From TrEMBL:
<feature type="transmembrane region" description="Helical">
    <location>
        <begin position="309"/>
        <end position="333"/>
    </location>
</feature>
<keyword id="KW-0813">Transport</keyword>
<dbReference type="Pfam" id="PF01554">
    <property type="entry name" value="MatE"/>
</dbReference>
<feature type="transmembrane region" description="Helical">
    <location>
        <begin position="160"/>
        <end position="180"/>
    </location>
</feature>
<feature type="transmembrane region" description="Helical">
    <location>
        <begin position="12"/>
        <end position="32"/>
    </location>
</feature>
<dbReference type="InterPro" id="IPR050222">
    <property type="entry name" value="MATE_MdtK"/>
</dbReference>
<dbReference type="InterPro" id="IPR002528">
    <property type="entry name" value="MATE_fam"/>
</dbReference>
<keyword id="KW-0406">Ion transport</keyword>
<feature type="transmembrane region" description="Helical">
    <location>
        <begin position="276"/>
        <end position="297"/>
    </location>
</feature>
<keyword id="KW-0050">Antiport</keyword>
<dbReference type="InterPro" id="IPR048279">
    <property type="entry name" value="MdtK-like"/>
</dbReference>
<feature type="transmembrane region" description="Helical">
    <location>
        <begin position="241"/>
        <end position="264"/>
    </location>
</feature>
<feature type="transmembrane region" description="Helical">
    <location>
        <begin position="94"/>
        <end position="118"/>
    </location>
</feature>
<keyword id="KW-1003">Cell membrane</keyword>
<feature type="transmembrane region" description="Helical">
    <location>
        <begin position="192"/>
        <end position="212"/>
    </location>
</feature>
<feature type="transmembrane region" description="Helical">
    <location>
        <begin position="426"/>
        <end position="445"/>
    </location>
</feature>
<feature type="transmembrane region" description="Helical">
    <location>
        <begin position="52"/>
        <end position="73"/>
    </location>
</feature>
Length: 461
C-alpha cells in the first residue's frame, strides 16, 4: 500500500509542480499591477483595485468553464483514444473563443456598476478605462486556458510554467513603460497597466500555440492540421460540464469579493486587514488548487482506462496529500502570523486586526484544501452540477448570511452580537461555509465513487 501511495503521489506531483509555479506567476501579474500603480498615485491604485475586482470574477469564471476540456481530453488519454483528441480540441477552441467574447462583453457592461458606488469622478473614469482596456485580453485568455487544459491532460505541464513566467516578466517590463511613461511613452497609469496585462494574454496564447506546433510531444494529437466548423452538439456537451464549474468559481470568488465591499463601511483598518489576509490566503491556496488540477487529470485518465477502483484511490490520495499540506500551512500561519503581517504593513492597528483574521484563515485551511481537491476529483468523474449547488448553498446559504449577522450585527435580526464583529464576523462565516462545502462534497464523492464501483462489478462479473 505504501508503494502504491508513493507511486500515485509521484504522478500527481509531476503534473502539479509546474502548474503551481505557473499559477503563482499568473497571480504575480495581478500583484505587479497593484504594486506598480500604487507607486504612481492613490487614484490609479484605487482604479486598479476596483477594476481588478470585476476582472478577477469574470476571469476565474472563464477559467472554470475551460476546465471541462481537461476532464474530456484526459478521459480520452486514459482510454488510449488519441485519435479523438484533435477534433475535441478544435471544437474546444471554438467554444473558448465564444466564451471569451461573451466574457469581454459582460466585462464592458459591468462597468456601469461603478456609477452606483459614489466614486470620485476621476477614479470612476480610470476604473472604467481599466476594465474596458483589459477586456481585450479575455478571448485570448479563454483560448489559452483551453490549450492549458489540453497540455495538462497529456501530463505536459512545463510549458504552462515557462509561459506564465515569461508572461509575468513581460507584464512587469511593459507595466514599467506604460504606467510611468518611460522612454518617451505617455504616462498612462492604471490604463497602461491594463494594456500590459491584456497584451500579455495574447502573447501567452501565441507562445502556447508556438510550443504546441514545435514540440514533438503533441505530434500524435496535434489539433491544427485543418479547419472545421463548430459542432454545437459537442460544444454543448463540454459546456454542460464547464458551466457548472464556472458558476462554482463565480460563487466562491464573488462571496470573498462581497466581504471586501461589506467591510468597507468599517474604515481603512478593516479594509486593509481584510485585503492583506485575503491576499496571503490566496497565495497559500495555490498549492491545493494546483494539486486539484493535477487530480482532475489523474482521475480522468484512470476512469478512461476503465479502472474505477483505482480512480477512487487516486481521488482520496489527492485529497489526503492536500490535507497534509493544509495542516502544515495552518500551523505555520498560526505561528508566524505577526511576521507575515509585518511584511505587508507597519501600522500596529492593521497588524493586530490582520493577525486575528489570519487565525481564522488558518482554521479554514483544512476545509478549503478539502473542498477544492474533492471538487477537482469530481470533475474527473465529469460530475459538476451537484458540486455547483453545494457550493452555492455553502457560500450563500451559510457563509454570507452568518457573516452578515456576525459582521454587521443588524438590529432587525432576532439574534445578533452586542456589537458588529466587523471583518472577523465575515471570516467566521467563510470558515463555516467552507466546512459545510467540504463535508457535503466529501460525502458525495464517497457515494459516487462507491456507486461507480458497484455498477462496474454488476456489469463486469
Amino acid at each position: 500500500m505504501k508503494t502504491k501511495i508513493r507511486t500515485e503521489l509521484a504522478k500527481l506531483w509531476q503534473i502539479a509542480w509546474p502548474v503551481l509555479i505557473g499559477q503563482l506567476a499568473t497571480v504575480g501579474m495581478s500583484v505587479a499591477d497593484v504594486a506598480m500603480t500604487g507607486h504612481l498615485s492613490a487614484e490609479d491604485l484605487a482604479a486598479v483595485a476596483l477594476g481588478a475586482s470585476l476582472w478577477s470574477i469574470i476571469l476565474v469564471t472563464v477559467m472554470g468553464v475551460m476546465i471541462s476540456i481537461n476532464a474530456v481530453v484526459a478521459h480520452e488519454v486514459g482510454a488510449g483514444a488519441f485519435e479523438k483528441i484533435p477534433h475535441i480540441m478544435r471544437q474546444s477552441m471554438w467554444m473558448a473563443f465564444g466564451v471569451g467574447m461573451i466574457a469581454c462583453l459582460i466585462l464592458n457592461l459591468s462597468t456601469h456598476v461603478f456609477s452606483y458606488l459614489q466614486l470620485d469622478p476621476f477614479v470612476q473614469k480610470k476604473a472604467t478605462e481599466f476594465v474596458r482596456v483589459i477586456s481585450i485580453g479575455m478571448p485570448a485568455f479563454a483560448m489559452y486556458r483551453a490549450l492549458y487544459s489540453y497540455t495538462t491532460s497529456l501530463n505536459e505541464t512545463k510549458p504552462i510554467m515557462m509561459i506564465a513566467i515569461l508572461g509575468l516578466i513581460f507584464n512587469v517590463i511593459v507595466n514599467y513603460l506604460f504606467i510611468y511613461g518611460k522612454f518617451g511613452l505617455p504616462q498612462l497609469g492604471s490604463t497602461g497597466s491594463a494594456m500590459a496585462t491584456g497584451i500579455a494574454m495574447w502573447l501567452m496564447l501565441g507562445a502556447m500555440l508556438w510550443w504546441i506546433h514545435h514540440s514533438p510531444i503533441y505530434k500524435r494529437t496535434f489539433p491544427f492540421t485543418h479547419r472545421e466548423k463548430p459542432n454545437w452538439v459537442e460544444i454543448r456537451s463540454m459546456l454542460r460540464i464547464g458551466l457548472p464549474i464556472g458558476v462554482t468559481y463565480f460563487a466562491e470568488v464573488s462571496a470573498f469579493s462581497a466581504v471586501g465591499l461589506l467591510v468597507a463601511r468599517f474604515g481603512v483598518v478593516a479594509i486593509s486587514a481584510n485585503q492583506i489576509a485575503l491576499n496571503f490566503s490566496s497565495l497559500v491556496f495555490m498549492v491545493p488548487m494546483s494539486l486539484g488540477i493535477a487530480l482532475t487529470t489523474r482521475v480522468s485518465q484512470t476512469l478512461g482506462e476503465g479502472d474505477v477502483v483505482h480512480a477512487r484511490f487516486v481521488s482520496w490520495t489527492g485529497v489526503g496529500v492536500s490535507l497534509v499540506f493544509a495542516v502544515i500551512s495552518a500551523s505555520m500561519m498560526t505561528l508566524l502570523r505577526y511576521e507575515v503581517v509585518a511584511a505587508y504593513t507597519s501600522d500596529p492597528m492593521i497588524q493586530e486586526v490582520t493577525a486575528n483574521l489570519l487565525l481564522l484563515a488558518a482554521i479554514f485551511q483544512l476545509s478549503d484544501a478539502a473542498q477544492i481537491t474533492i471538487s477537482c476529483a469530481l470533475r474527473g468523474y465529469k460530475v459538476t452540477r451537484i458540486p455547483m449547488f453545494i457550493h452555492i448553498m455553502a457560500f450563500y446559504g451559510f457563509a454570507m448570511p452568518i457573516g452578515l449577522v456576525l459582521g454587521l450585527a443588524p438590529d432587525w435580526m432576532p439574534w445578533h452580537p452586542a456589537k458588529p464583529m466587523e471583518a472577523s464576523g465575515f471570516w467566521i462565516g467563510l470558515v463555516l461555509g467552507l466546512t459545510v462545502a467540504a463535508i457535503m462534497l466529501g460525502i458525495f464523492l464517497h457515494r459516487l465513487s462507491t456507486s461507480r464501483i458497484a455498477y462496474h462489478l454488476r456489469t463486469n462479473p
